[in-house]
Amino acid sequence: xxxxxxxxxxxxxxxxxxxxxxxxxxxxxxxxxxxxxxxxxxxxxxxxxxxxxxxxxxxxxxxxxxxxxxxxxxxxxxxxxxxxxxxxxxxxxxxxxxxxxxxxxxxxxxxxxxxxxxxxxxxxxxxxxxxxxxxxxxxxxxxxxxxxxxxxxxxxxxxxxxxxxxxxxxxxxxxxxxxxxxxxxxxxxxxx
Length: 192
Prior knowledge:
By secondary structure, this protein is of the alpha/beta class.
């Protein structure tokens, strides 16, 4: 059996979130510079697949750590066939290892807190869900809605708002709608 030098590909959509940057910086402490290959692979699912496949072919990695990325089944199969284990951080996919927070429980706790504070007309502002990288927001919303449902509360459709960039500008653009709806609390849950 031939010994392969360690080369871990660490991939994220763009290393733009505090979590992605902190995780990469922490991983660098445990690896020599030549053992880590950082790859920004885009938010677009098609581009992610292409770039993950390029990383497999060009880097010949010994492992893939993907932060806020959910590879499709073809990509997972290609890595499995190449005997390259995959670890997903803050995502889930069949056939790979996952490290994640309990986003559903976090959403539930947030809902219970707002209810305990007497809030009844609550809005949810999130990043895009039902998209690549939307897993965390989906789970947070699920838990939050469970807390509201347990108290027979709900979120009006006009108070469930998805924004594109989850930026300050997005917040400014949705605020008039929230004020007009008369909400007494807002649950903010980003994608990542």
